[in-house]
Amino acid sequence: MIYLKSVVAGILALVASAMVILTIMIIILVAVVWRYKPDGIDIPRISIDWPSAAKTPFFWLILLLIFGAGFYWEFRRLRH
Questions:
Q1: Is there a contact between 13 and 70 (Cβ–Cβ < 8 Å)?
Q2: pTM of the predicted model as reported, rounded to 2 decimal places
Q3: Nearest-10 Cα torsion for 49, 52, 56, 60
């Protein structure tokens, strides 16, 4: 049961980090738009190729580190 709860904590850590990163990206985008276009908001078009980004080892390493941190945090907490 400890391992199952730790896996769930790792998955929740991935979801939480994705939401935090998305929020930070939106805040930065809005700040840049307001800084350089004060007369009105003109949202720039941004294209990100997620399928090709997901093929890189760096992407999977970051995901593994976030999952591992969430897993270890919960596992250590439940062991004591």
A1: yes
A2: 0.69
A3: 70
Residue 42 has pLDDT above 70, yes or no: no
Average pLDDT over residues 37-57: 69
- Burial level of 3, CB count in 10 A (0-12/13-18/19+)? exposed
Half-sphere exposure of 23 (CA within 13 A, CB side): 6
Q: CB of 6 within 8 A of CB of 74?
A: yes
Phi, psi of 10 (to 5 degrees): -65, -40
- Could you give the CA distance from residue 64 to residue 4 in angstroms, rounded to a whole number? 17
Residue with the larger pLDDT of the pair 35 and 3: 3
Q: Cα(17)–Cα(14) distance, rounded to whole angstroms?
A: 5
The residue written with tokens 């307001």 in the block is 34
Tell me, what amino acid is at 53? A
